[in-house]
Structure formats: structure tokens, C-alpha cells
Amino acid sequence: MVSQVEEDIIENDFIILKSLGSGSFGEVKLACHLPTNTKVAVKVLERNQNSVNVITSEVEILQSLEHRNIVRFFHVMDTLKLTYVVMEYVAGKDLEMFLRDIGYLKEEEARPIFQQVVKAVHFLHQRQIAHRDIKLANILIDRAGNIKICDFGMAIQVKEGQMLTKACGSLYYMAPEIMARTPYDGLAVDMWSLGVVLYVLVTGQYPYFETEAHALYSLITSTKFAIPYHLSKPCHIIIAQLLKVNNLHRITICQLLERSWLSHNEEHAEPASKNIVSRVMATMKTIGYTCEEIMSSLRHKQPNNKKINDFQYSKTQVEL
């Protein structure tokens, strides 16, 4: 049943500014959370018999994730016809748009970007979560070069050894076993997609290109992808290990992290959490909450509680 409080929150606490584009199963809009004057991304999903389970799964996965390279979940609100998923807004562009302006990146430019993507996927795979739609358009980059993976509409939590059958993903990033309509390992298909992402970052082209799935599958299984002369051997080796047609020979995310090509850059330092919390407390007090209310909301982490959401919005505001 739809809560009147949630209806009021949608009407009174948010103003839609513009459309940011369409993701899997829904449109994403830029909105302003009026109580904190914070910009947020709102994914608007139509509710029907076919979509309820998908929406529930996406929200449950987003609620369980907290990582600097994954878009942050704030709040979910249901109406009779729509679900609104409120998430962190990344002021920048996706990598697909980013590359349109420059063609491709030098390896030393691509490395810190890919490094952050790998960290996010490692975080997911440690928790047995397969994203299943990793692509340039689902990787956001801000003006400082910080990366966030978004759009978990096709994500799924799997059990050890579980094989999946639903065909999903974007054609040029899709692993051959999905195109072959055979049961597949959800984590392994993410690794194939990472190979495509890295290849496009350093070449500006897809490793395999056909407009139809059957033709693309035939190309992948019968030819080797082209190796541009400017690629270093360590970079080429990583791509080759990710784009193994036989998924049993494809490297895992833990093996990828061990590759020397990725270790050239120092890891980004995590923000100082104590400083952030103290700044958040100060900001929340100006909104009118007491210390007891703030800490109670934070401890219980109730996603439908208005106080915890104001806290989360405020936390993002001071981090930016």
C-alpha cells in the first residue's frame, strides 16, 4: 500500500530538473532534494506485474552496497504506478560520452579509470553480485576523474556455482556464452565486459563489431581481435585474458587485480570518515535535528525514514 508520507515527500521534497537519459527498465532524471538543496539522480520505474520483482531486486542490491566507485543509494518511494529510486548524482558524463570527444586514451590515462572500475567490480564479486550490464554508458566520471558504476537493473546476487539462463546485457559487451543461449556464470560475463571496456578505452573501437547477435557470435568464435601497434604487451595480455571465449580460461576479478599493468598507480585514499561525520553532524544540526535523532537514524539505517535520508543527502553534499 502506498504511504501518504511518501506521496508528500515526492511532491514537496523534490523538484525534477531534467532527464539524464534512459537506463535498463526506466528513465533517470536529475532532481533537487529541496530540504538540503542537493542534486540527486532519480530513477523512475513503471510498476506492473512483470517489473515488481526486478525493481525489488535492484533496490535490495543497491541498499546493500556502499563503495566509493558505486553510485550511492539514498531512498526508494512507491506510488500506485511508479517507483522512484533516489541515488547519488554524479556531475560529469558517462565514459561513452567522454570518449566521443577524444577518441581513445593513452594507457597511462586509461589505467586510473579502469583501476577504479575494477575495484568496484571486485567489491561486487566479493559479495557474489553480478552486474551483467557493464559498459561505458554505465560508468560515470566526474571532473576530478572519479569513477562510479551505475544502473543495477540487471544485477543479480548468485550462489556459489550457480548458472544463469536469462539473456541480458548490451550486445557489444555481451559474453559469447550469453549469445549462445547456454547457462552461464554471472561473474564470468562481467569479466568479458571488462575486457571490452578496457579495449575501447585504449583503442576507441570495439574488439568485435557486428550489428546482429548471431553474426557477432560467429565473429568472436572464429577470429582474434585486432591488436593495435601502440598497445603495450602487459595491456594486451590483460585484454586477451579477459576476452577468452571459453569462460573457464577467463581470469577472475581477483586474478585481474594481481596484474602488474594495474599496479602502476597508487590507490585513491579513502576519505577521512571522522572528519566527514563531524561535518555532517554540523550540517544536520542547521537543518533542525538533534544529535540523538541523527545518531539513531544512522545506527538503524532505515531507508524509508525521512531523517536518515536527509542525513545521507547532507553527507553527500559535504563530501562534494
Name a few traits of the molecule.
single chain, 320 residues, alpha+beta, Transferase(Phosphotransferase), domain 1, 2 domains, five-stranded antiparallel β-sheet, three-stranded antiparallel β-sheet, 12 helices, 42% helix, 17% strand, protein serine kinase activity, ATP binding, transferase
CATH class of the largest domain: Mainly Alpha
Major sheet, described briefly?
A: 5 strands, antiparallel
Beta-strand level of the residues, as a percent range? Answer: 15-25%
Please identify which CATH superfamily of the largest domain we are dealing with: Transferase(Phosphotransferase) domain 1
CATH architecture of the largest domain: Orthogonal Bundle
Q: Helical amount among residues, as a percent range?
A: 40-55%
Q: What strand line-up does the widest sheet have?
A: 1-2-3-5-4
Mean pLDDT: 84
The CATH topology of the largest domain is: Transferase(Phosphotransferase), domain 1
Radius of gyration: 21 Å
Enumerate how many helices there are, as a single number: 12
Overall morphology: globular
Overall structural domain count: 2
SSE arrangement, N to C: HEEEHEEEHHEEEEHHHHHHHH
Instruction: Detail the poorly predicted runs.
Output: 266-277, 299-305
Number of strands: 10
Alpha-beta classification = alpha+beta
Distance between the termini: 36 Å
Keywords: ATP-binding, Kinase, Magnesium, Metal-binding, Nucleotide-binding, Serine/threonine-protein kinase, Transferase
GO biological process, one term: intracellular signal transduction
Domain Protein kinase: 14-262
Enzyme class: transferase
